[in-house]
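Memo to structure team: turn this sequence into structure tokens by end of day. - J.P.
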Amino acid sequence: MPADFANVCPMPKPPDTPMPSPPSVSPLSAAGDRHFDGLAEKFAESLYGGARGELRLALLDRLLPEMLALHGQPLLDVGGGLGQLAGWFAGRGHAVTLVEPSGEMLARARASLEGREIVFLQAPLQSLSDCAPGPWPLIACHAGLEWLADPRAALAALAAQLAPGGQLSLMVFNRDALRFSNVVKGNLEKALADRLEGKGLRRRLTPISPLTHAQVVEWSAELGLEVRAVAGVRIFNDYLRRPPESDADRETLLELEWRYCRFDPHWRLGRYLLYTLVRPDSSTPSAEEPAT
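Reply from structure team:
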């Protein structure tokens, strides 16, 4: 199994070291990918500081044990961001290696997960073969591919590190849901022209490479991966005219999302699509397909 790669990839400063002042913008990398130095605080507030982030995490808490065969195997968390997913797996007995290209995001993850036995690596996804070589029995890449210039190549890089019978928990930003959301907001011309991608040059958090279900299915087949399970995350919430105001309403919304997140056609309009992709092995059982 992969060991400590601290001597291979640079590590961030310890949590008690003051974090450097972030740059005013979050530029694209040389590869054209969107990293989040300079935007970690905005990222945390926008995606996890409110009801949307709470709902996303609550749904993952229920979905992951159903969609994955988990038995404490080592986990590679790619594009681990602020560390919520790494903390979830570490708390369930997995030896976690978190890889994140943004030094600012990684420092925040280390601070929030202080005391956990987690390996932290600062590196882009394209460096996995050098920094965190497999084969890994379990890889997670949640909300990462949509920020990369070439998501198909990124999926190939993840597949190359997956062990036979290994599972990849992949979550992507849903392009079809983004189009629907723009129509709901009245951005009709933008939706009709299919101008949905963000540019990655300002402080807005629209992904530069939102993906469709068809793309994930096609690329997975080309890479020899099987789609064992799929679900939609936040299939209703993002289209509400008013967010739920009371705890009771939020609980009702969670139950509604949970009831239909794997039922066709509702899962197809989730703001995120969550997949279990498996490199085939005769000993790996199949998961249930979405209900119809």
